[in-house]
Each structure stands twice: as structure tokens, then as C-alpha cells.
Amino acid sequence: MKKKRIGIMTTGGDCSGLNTAIHRIIRCASLRGWHVIGIQDGTDGLCGTPRTIDLTEDILPIENARLSGSFLHNGHAGALNFETAIERNRVKQFNRQLRQSLNDLKLDALILIGGNGSTSLAWANHEIYQDLQFVCIPKTIDMDMPLTDRTIGFDTAVQQLTSFCDQLMLTARSHHRWFVVQSMGRDCGNLALNAGIAVGATAILIPEIKFNVDDLVAHVANAPTDYGIIMVSEGITLRGHSGRPADMISRKLTAAGIVNRTAFPEHTQRSGDTTACDRILATRFADCAINAIENGETYVITTLECGECKTVSLAEFVAAGDSTSDPKIPGLCTANAYVDPDDPLLSVAQDMGIYIGNYK
Ligand code: F6P
Prior knowledge:
Layout: E1 5-10, H1 18-31, E2 35-39, E3 52-54, H2 82-87, H3 91-104, E4 109-114, H4 116-124, E5 133-138, H5 154-174, E6 178-183, H6 190-199, E7 203-205, H7 213-221, E8 228-233, H8 245-255, E9 260-263, H9 276-294, E10 300-305, E11 308-313, H10 314-320, E12 322-325, E13 333-336, H11 344-351
Parallel strand pairs: 1-2, 1-4, 4-5, 5-10, 6-8, 6-9, 7-8
Antiparallel strand pairs: 2-3, 10-11, 12-13
Helix pairs in contact: 1-9, 5-6
The chain binds 6-O-phosphono-beta-D-fructofuranose (F6P).
């Protein structure tokens, strides 16, 4: 069988687990005698003269494969990408350039490790990839991608956010006060919900569930402790109020005489050494992607469904998502997923006396 030449690209926001996925792809490919090319800075690395690096295991050694970030980088702000190409009215030239660069690199296949924005964009512009096999691997701390029970980076982000709250809990107890912690996650509450349960938060507010702020305040005022964590997802809104969600909630608590502080873990949720779960997932997705290439598949994405790792077509993946228009990219709808109303964690939270809003 012909030895393949495959490319890897990481796009969108970084997360922990990308390097493990890259490392495992290199491992699987080199066992087959394939050549692996890393494309640097996402699509930016395909503009102009392609910026690439030959990937071998000594370039990304196994002991570094657990580190967060992307060894290949995810792109510069302001560089030519799908978003800026639309702004500059250069979509056709941009797409032509990407296709040409992939041909110049003589790639048989490309693996894109991306979130729902990247994969939706890839499908919307799939003519770029028509001359090679195109396989996606899902990654994001937001866990907002359809048809997969897990995305690379989510488990580490939950761990990072949990550890952040664990530290706050100790100082909160010393001063008899509350911390309103604002999690990332965009308009999906999975990260806040999972970390909130892990840390034993007193309240968890997520965009998928409406809440009544007076009920929240009363719940905190009557809690069995006078300290703790109120987990607020960055995607929540409070009618008549503006500003950061944690600040809005904090002001309401202060007005009711509840002593509190806000805390913003921000991008630490995207960093941290990759957890064992994320490393296992990255390894499984890498193996699945390489097998898909070997089997001649294209325009597919790896998914985990009920413990089984498999590929589904990008068309099916995009159609299964909740189609949401991207404010930054006119005409693009991204395939989103949200916390399922039947997610067992919601009823567990309720049983544990955690305030989660108007749920059931
Ligand atoms: O999608 C991942 C994510 O970390 C979101 O949770 C967050 O809202 C956003 O990216 C932050 O983006 P940036 O790195 O551009 O500030």
C-alpha cells in the first residue's frame, strides 16, 4: 500500500489535549511508515508560502505530549482566516489559496482538530478539501458539539475550574463570604454544570435554564453555610442588567447583604496538564482518524457515542447541531449542542440542594 503523506492542523481556541492528539497521530502514522506534516497557525499557515514542520516523535516527545496549548499554534489575531476573509471580501481567493497550498504540500489527507466553529466552516467551504481525504477531530472546553459525548479538552477544563474553586473555598470559609465564579463555555453550560457539581457549588447558573435572581438570593441567604461557590456560566443573561454575568449576580447578592467576591478563572480553563481522561480520548480519536484515512474515508469527524469511538459524516454532524448564526461570520451557521434537559447531572444537582434555576 502507498505510504501516505498527511497533514495536521489545529484551529480555533486552544485547549489541553491537542498535543496528545498530535503525538498519537504521529505515532500511528509513523508505525505505518507515513509522513506527517504539521501546518502552523491553523489556516494562516496555508496562506502564502505554507508554513509547515515535519512531525516526528523526537520533535514532540511523549513527555511533552501532556502539556496544554498547541505545539502547532492556532493562529495570529488579524491574520487572514475565514472571518477576516469575509470582512475583506476575499473569500474566493482565500479558499483557492488554501486548496492550492494543500496541493503544493502534496498531502493525501488532512486532519483538522477543531471546535464547532472550525468544523462548521470546513463543511461550509468543503471544496477546499476536495483533492484529499479530510478528517476532523472534535476539541473544545465548551463541550458544545453535536453527536459526541466528549470533546478533547473538556475533562481537563472541568478539572482546572474545579481546582480553581477548591482554592477559593478555603479563603471563602476563612472570611465567611461567597465567591461568584464565572466559567467559560460561551452559550453552553456543560463546563459550569460539571465543575459546579464537582466542587459542591451552592448554585449553578447556566444559559440553558432560566432562573429567578430573587430565588437565588434567598437560596444563598438560607444555605447551611455562610460561604461557598456560586458558579455562573459566561453565557447567562439577567434582564435589565449589563456587564459580566458574575458582576451582575454579585451586585444582587451585595444588595441583599450577602458578602461576596467575584472570580474569573478565564484562560486557565484552557490550560493545565492534560488529564488521563483527555489523553485517552485524544489517543482514541487519533487512532480512529488514522483508521478512517486508511479506509479511504473523507469529510468525516470522529465521535464518541455511548463509549464507542467512530466516524460520522460532516454533513450529518452539521445537520445534527442546533444551527446558530455566527455574529462574526455573516451567512455561517455553526452546529451547536447544549446541556440536554434530560442530563442526569441536572436532577442530581437538584437532589443535592444546589440552586439551578427553574428546572422541572
Ligand atoms: O470556545 C472556547 C472559549 O474558551 C470560550 O469558552 C470562550 O468564551 C472563548 O473561547 C474565549 O475566546 P478568546 O480566547 O478569544 O478570549
